[in-house]
Design brief:
mainly alpha
Length: 455
Amino acid sequence: MRVRGAELALAAGVALMFGMMFMFSISKHMKNDRTHAPDHRGQTLEAIVGQTVAGFEKEAEALKSQSPSYQRQLKNERILNLLLTGQYAEVQRLMIEEKQLLPGRLSAGTAVAVRHWIDELGIQMKDIMPHFDAWVKAFPDSAVPYTARAVAYYYYAWKLRGEGYASETKKSNMQSFHALLEIGNDDIIKALSLDPREGVTQEYAVNYAFLLKGREGGMQAFSQATTSVPDYYPIYSAYLNFMQRKWMGRDGEALNYALDMIRKVPEDSILLMLPLEAYDDEDVWQRQRGDAEQEGFAAWWSGSDGRAKTTEEYYSDPVVWANVMALYERLMKHHPDITFITLSYAETLNNVGYSDQALEYYRRAVEKDPYYDRTSDRDPHGLYFIAWTYNVGRNQPDLAFPYYQKYSLLYPQDVSANNMLGFIYQNRRQIDKSLAHFTQASIADPRNVYALAHM
């Protein structure tokens, strides 16, 4: 994060009542321990923090250079800039490359790039759609621009609709949602006519079909998609999503399908992830005892009588847990380079209370790709989990320190990590760095009492 003068002035203003205490602390520790602190005599508070944060930025760039996810993000931004400046031939070339599976992940780059432009970079539909149209016009016989534009319409439609239940969404928003889906679906139909064996196109054909044609239409599109592209995992993931009870599925339907699939696939198939994803869907996690009967599901999976159970009950069953562990063991044996699998395993261990075992697999995941975030919004980032476990769970702040440090370099606006690093650096008498982290925490949250109290 680049700390601008106005932000620093704001933070310094908020913390004005502590200013004399800051400088007294700095001068005291510099006098007592010259080995830990550079010479800041004659410098303002803003200059000290600015120099220190500039050093953090250099460290962050070095760390990000080791991350395939970060390099992917830079490439996505480069493609967007090319698109917005009308360099459609280069966009076409690079997006054809994106049809390959991404390093460490289970999906191709086409949809990831477009979603990054919309969700992370906040590009507006009115600004980008004319360029999609021009790209399509420049390459009318290629499925690639049609698919990319369909992906964009899909996510813009969801932005208009919102994430709440349909019954809670404004009628006008729902009308706009369906209108954009109809336009995007036309692109999907065109793309399929040009290249029916493109995985991303088939994945979104399934998404569009479920939303526009309902359960039967979605299931038909899924059958066609898996016939054309039988080994592209996101197609199956899309199906499992819509087969959840909150969408169009029946109790246990998605999980039953996933469990049936693993009987049919080879030892090294990536589709072994299916029951792990289905078992982890939010309906199963939130379901309470006695909510519903799950026909045939529990009997096959855990040998029980078929009544609905909580997730905790399922995982406490030794047969269930043995099946889960066996699937992860096979997946990690045959796909050691897929960070998603390692991170998913770590999150599963953590969610059932095996934090010590989870620690090791979180460590493996962040060593492969430190910028890889999470497989689920409810799970912590790997670096933060490791740091928190050492610091809070084991009271070993020295072991937590390098993980807090890396996490803060990648996510400099995280208040909690900056607070902890400020405290650790303060105990180490590295007051310039302590002050820099507490200042960053105050910029991110001016009401952050913890940071102000330790400045």
